[in-house]
Fold this protein.
Amino acid sequence: MLLGLAAGASILAVAIIGLIIYEIVNSASPAISKYGLGFFGHQTWNNYTVFGAATLIFGTVVTSAGALLIAAPLGIAIGLYLSLFSARRTAAIIGPLVEMLAAVPSVIIGLWGIIVLGPFLRSTIEPWLHDALGFIPLFGTPSATGSGVFTAIIVLGIMALPIIAAITRDLFLTVPSELKDGALALGATRWEMVRGVVLSSMRPGIASACILGVSRALGEAIAALQVIGSVFQISSNLFAPGNTLGATIAIQANADNSKLQVASLFYLALVLLAIELLVNLAAQAIVRHYRVPSASGPTIVAAGAPN
Amino acid sequence: MSNKTQTRSPYSVMDEPHSEIDAATAPVVAPLAIEVADSKDETPPSREVVFDLRDVSVYYGQALAVAGVSLEIHRNQITAMIGPSGCGKTTILRSLNRMNDSVSSFRLTGSCTYHGNDLYASGVDAVEVRRRIGMVFQRPNPFPKSIYDNIGWAPRILGMRDNLDERVEKALRGAALWDEVKDRLKTSALGLSGGQQQRLCIARSIAIEPDVLLLDEPCSALDPISTASIEDLMQDLKNDYTLVIVTHNMQQAARVAERTAFFSLDVSGGQRKGILVEYDDTATIFTRPADKRTEDYVTGRFG
Amino acid sequence: MASLDYTRPLTASGNLRRRRVVDRLMRGAATAAALAAVVILGLMVFAIAQRGGSQLSVAFLTQNPPEQLYAAGGGIANAIIGSALMVALATIIALPIGVLIAIYLTEFATARAAGPIRLALDLLYGMPTIVIAIFILGLLVVGHGQTGFYASLALAIIMLPLIARTTGESLALVPKELRDASHALGISRWRTTVGITIPSALGGIVTGTILAVARVAGETAPMLLLASVFDNTKTSFNIFGQALPNIPYEIFNLAESGGTVNVAKAWGAAFVLVVFVLIANFVARALHHRSTRMMTGR
Ligand SMILES: Nc1ncnc2c1ncn2[C@@H]1O[C@H](COP(=O)(O)OP(=O)(O)O)[C@@H](O)[C@H]1O
Ligand SMILES: [Mg+2]
């Protein structure tokens, strides 16, 4: 009987995945049949009438790529610090603090982003970047409110950071001490040891950690919604407002909408689902192919960031 | 009972039953199953001192691991450290090139000089120390890189980039590995056999032209044939380097070393600590030891 | 070998000086990165404590919001109750299923059967919660309306892979000898599982459940889609009949509606939520250490 129940529960887990995919495709089908692949190229999202996802895909990709650009080097550096550079006692304090960052609910990070971080960026960082690098279109006119793609990048980067840090830390801890000793005994500095022996041999694991980090940023709906400004546009100016797939679904799905809009929102969800499935399968493939130790992350952190 | 061991099996001494010998009636010089290396000449008294340890004690936290070690290690010789496990051989060896720096609880007292320079003086850079004093470990630890890159890595970071190919070849020839790997330099070092890997680690160390090579039980993970080849190699290496080898295998010490230090565990005063019991020419240690404990150990009555 | 003078002082010289600078720079950068993360957490916690702490009062925890959206006073009592009910129901659903999946994977499944199940759990784990939320919306809410139960279902799906994973990890730690001893006594497999294996893994199961609860308590996306239409001046226990007020939506809504009074209340609610989440994580971490130490004897 236990076997039956246990098997049943397991089948349920598989069935849920299937049901999610079915339900989303099914609900999206009116939009799919109306717009087809043109959905991805069309920029207008005009409530009740015309729907195109181009601006949202652009916003999602730009914010996630930006978040990765910030979180990957910082996260890997923190992973190195916690596993190889710091004293064990220091790591025992700072490690849990970093993990705690992953446990802060995204709606609270978003609240902080819109009230504290956004205004600070608008009044300090954005004008400074604009003055120094204004000739690059990316650093255009500072935002009016503190909401925008740039703020979203920072907020999503903060959310991806602890995930990359914790996974790479655990990864680097698996480097055998014989290997590290071998490098040090040749007259290498600690950094040379890290570069030559740790980073070079852990590349697949690091890549998979970054993928898992960016997957958090891609799928984050609430914090992005709170800080990005919700404007359907493609702008070269990072400080301008924008929008993402998740944010649009989150704010529009419970409104009183036309059938076509609901279907279009499901179409957006389908895009998000496809991106996430691809990204997660890629991370898994890397782990399998290179037999990377435990790249799925520690349980304590795994249960961290809600979105 | 056969007293002459013809094979180079590293284990035969331990296998022989010594219990037949009554300790009381046994001659002072025990029946040795050990050939003392015959290749070495009498040590000239004026040998240059490389390491000079005076009353060195090592603590891990509060625990005293090794107490009061004093010994001199001479240039272009092979010095062996033997003794039961846990008596601090590795600890002393790793103290010679500051490998223990990564152990936060490690503390050393006494004086430990290298060519007259205090190894533990402030201002001493452990990286500079290790650049001159290389180390080969118990388990072969090639990097997960190609054979070529295993050798070339350290010269590159140390700024010895000129003629790297020649340097790699010279190191591999120096470690008697060239002929076996010259056609597959770009393949992974992890594909080599254990003995080849250990010679690769030796090649890796000598590629940066160190002064000293420390070897911590370099053959303990190897088969007898690989062990023999490494022992042969050590005889060649001592022309260019000063070698210090820790071994649990007494015959190995007898075969390769000019000088042998015998360490033991001292349990007096309720505290377990390693001590240096006796340090002398290898022949003396194995044939006319001054200390009863040494004699017991080398004749197999202990350990 | 005469190219180097080994007797010269052991201080850094030649190119080692430059290499030392690089070494210091890189280690300094790594330390700075770690400090940056701690500083970000500190700034966040400071903002929440400063702005939210001042909101905290007995009234804030025991009263419902005022009639008018922008009026001062009132509290988040109904949101606390609603969140507690929905999270509790989600736990009741997800805990047995998650544990059963873990049991199946560690005790019964062949490698071939385990593959797709693990894959499904991994995919569920990586699934954006907004996708899970819109799935429930399409499946149950469209045409029928929101209820707390539907939101609980979404939370349960989010909890499932977390509970299954931690339970699986602690089941795997139960020594094989323990099971073998029980089998040797002629005790059937499922009795062994229920009587020996699960009790031994209880610490891990509890840890995983606490972590999962801490995580879904702050989930906002499902609330936005599945529990956002309600009378916020009342407390409701009718979880199967209507959407329940809840803390994450309350924070989101107060912050979005703007105005000093509401934003201040949002910080107050954020304070309550963060304190809960951090305490839960702390407890889980302590339990985790204790149970792994007991299991592995370390
Ligand atoms: N990193 C360490 N931390 C604490 N104690 C250590 C450490 N390394 C060695 N020891 C202790 O020092 C003593 C000597 O060890 P070791 O030098 O490894 O002996 P040997 O190499 O002769 O077997 C042992 O009691 C060992 O437990
Ligand atoms: Mg040892």
